[in-house]
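Morning!

This is the sequence you dropped in the shared folder:
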Amino acid sequence: MTGTITVRDAVPSDRPLLVEYMAGLQDTEHALHANRLPGAEIADGFLALEEKRVAKDHGRVFVAEVDGEPAGFLLCYQEPGEAYITADEKPYGWIGDIFVAADFRGSGVAPALMAAAEDHFRAQGIKVVRLGVLHANDRARAAYAKLGFAPYADTLEKYL
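The structure's back. Tokens below.
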């Protein structure tokens, strides 16, 4: 699908849409790793936690639309940076959540959302943006690589 992509700040009336998108994101991750709760169980509460982080840590919630139709969202905020990170990379920008509705994937919505987040962070003087991605999410990893993201750290797990 092609059309005009606009990115705007979320408004309170977007919350039901954001809960729906958060559920979609969680369901996508649940399909990739069994420890992720289904979206219906976690979306509203998790979004509320993330909204608090946005308010506290100089963040934003963006909504993308294609020809006026909601197409995705991105939630971002600042992270203070660990003690072992050099001062020039603190704080850093964190992409907490990004989701593009299925009908709009591959249409430029994710790059538009990322550009809005990067502009937000640049305006704050931030030099580095990070995000997390499940190892099994090959599609997202490829999309992030196309946007200039490179591997930074790996988290390994072992069940006991």
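Headline: Helices lie at 15-32, 39-56, 109-123, 138-146.

More detail when I'm at my desk.
O.
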